[in-house]
Amino acid sequence: MGLATYADLARNPVVRRILVLAMLIRIPLWAAGVVLTLHVVTHLDRSYTEAGVVEMVLAGALAVSGPWRGRRLDRIGLRRTVTPSLVVLSVTWSIAPWVDYWPLVAFVGLAGLFVVPSFSIVRQVLLAAVPLEQRTAALSVDSVAVELSFMIGPVLGVLAATYLPTPIALTICQLTAVLGALVLWVADPPLGRDHADVTEKQRVRDWLSPAVVMVLALCVAATVILTGEDLGAVAAMRAMGHTTSIGWVLALWGLGSAVGGIVYGALRRHPPASVLLVLLGSSTLAVTVADGRTAFTVLLFLSGLFCAPTITATIDDLSRAVPANVRGEAMGWHGSALTLGGAVGAPVVGWAIDHGGWDGGFELAGALGLTIALLGLAVQGIHRRNLAARPDEAGTTAVPAA
After folding, report:
1. Last residue of a domain, one of 166, 192, 218
2. Which Pfam families is this protein grouped with (predicted)?
3. Residue 127: inside a domain, yes or no?
């Protein structure tokens, strides 16, 4: 494949447009997340625990809405799926920033249920817009775009909350994201399914194979590792007496992830998510040998090289393991798995850090990832052997081999 593939992607007008639209939606959403926390603890004068409750309610709503909104994408298309979201989110975020704490919690839950499934839409458009041999590269570009939006959004959110009252800042951020979704609605990019496929409804049990379940488990494990590295890096810098270094250490970790995503997309052969999770888990465990800030930063950067590729590989594997007419719902389940991993990982890794120091967090996250990755390799091996016995299905449902 090579780096020339990225030049081909840059010349693809559908790819260019959807990535720009994705940034228009994602950057204000990341910004809004930071502003929401600051709004709760400053404007509403509540504790960080209560701010965490708001985040927990939002995460739960997103976990529920992912498969539901994805299923609607599969069955009724982009515009009919997004239209109710535009209405509900516009009303919700025009009111929510101006109410007290508990009404805010209710509004956040409602907004989470009707969130625009932008991640699922973007990935489906990318998969439909490129030939099969460019699929992984396109998903890698999207993973790098996610990293960039995550780096930009929180900075803009802090600036907005610093120079504006948080209700105004929160309203601006959320309604800007809604405006981006409206542009997406107007553009109505193709999701890459024939009308005959859309009308053919399938129940979850018709496509939820052991291979699909394993990919979703890999998503959960990968997110637990990323959460462990995030919290562990903060704890490590504090323990080493370098609290002021936390920001740039995490930034270098993110840079490693972006570099890894670019390199992974340019590879001629792409290992499956289970192999990459082995590398991510092993490199996470390796960070524990660091005896100072420099060694820690280098090892964390090296581990970051496997972050974006692992998430990209789970998307790629999942898209190949399910029929095209349920891809939206499957991507919704993928998003729910990532949300679950973050929700589970934070308290579990926090417990490990409290009882074993910063390296305890890395050890638990890395060991968990390695265990699930090895199980994933076994399941995918069985899946490939089954497909070899049924060669007529291998072209449509196979999880790629290493």
Report:
1. 192
2. MFS_1
3. yes
